[in-house]
Design goal:
With 181 residues, the chain is α+β, with helices and mostly antiparallel strands. The protein has a 4-stranded mixed beta sheet. The chain is built from 3 helices and 9 strands, in the order βαβββαββαβββ.
Length: 181
């Protein structure tokens, strides 16, 4: 497991880093290697925050917590991650896995610009690229829930077309598929 620890507005502490790494070892039982984890520990006035992002074989899980104690924040955020991974593992058992022989595809997400007043036309502020395996619609809904996103662009494993799944205002999901002419 590759773990990166970043301290924000706090003096780097080997004890906090070791504590976070020790707690992260619990996630190994839920997902296979290779696992990359990013831990962000920060302090703002009296709030201690811990943010964790875990990436492994086509899955990305994020969680964050704020408390008045850094060790408690680490415990709470890793409990949250562990619950998400358990839910993910349970859902995988219920669904038939997609074929793993397909190559990796890249998806991009663009985050809207907020507060840019110097330009009159929209500008791309951030562009992210990540690898993804083709997945079924059910797997895409599960991944969207794990990432806490309102939409997800993915490659449909059934027809190799790029699809968009999104959360509707009524709580249901919508699917956008390209028209094959």
């Amino acid at each position: 497991m590759q773990i990166t620890t970043t301290f924000r507005h706090i003096e780097p502490s080997e004890a906090l880093k070791a504590y976070a790494e020790e707690k992260l070892e619990r996630v190994r039982k839920y997902i296979d290697e290779p696992i990359t984890a990013q831990v962000f520990l920060g302090v703002e006035k009296i709030r201690h925050s811990a943010d964790v992002t875990i990436t492994a074989k086509g899955i990305t899980i994020k969680a964050s917590e704020e408390t008045s104690d850094m060790y408690a924040a680490i415990d709470m955020v890793l409990d949250k991650i562990e619950r998400q991974l358990q839910r993910y593992k349970d859902r995988l058992k219920e669904h038939k896995p997609a074929s793993d022989n397909a190559g990796q595809l890249f998806m991009k997400s663009v985050v809207e610009a907020e507060g840019i007043e110097t330009r009159s036309e929209p500008v791309i502020i951030k562009s992210s690229t990540f690898s993804s395996k083709p997945m079924s619609v059910d797997e895409a809904v599960m991944q969207m829930d794990l990432l806490h996103k309102d939409f997800l662009v993915f490659t449909n494993g059934g027809n190799d077309a790029i699809n968009v799944i999104y959360r509707r205002k009524d709580g249901n999901f919508g699917l956008i598929e390209p028209d094959r002419v």
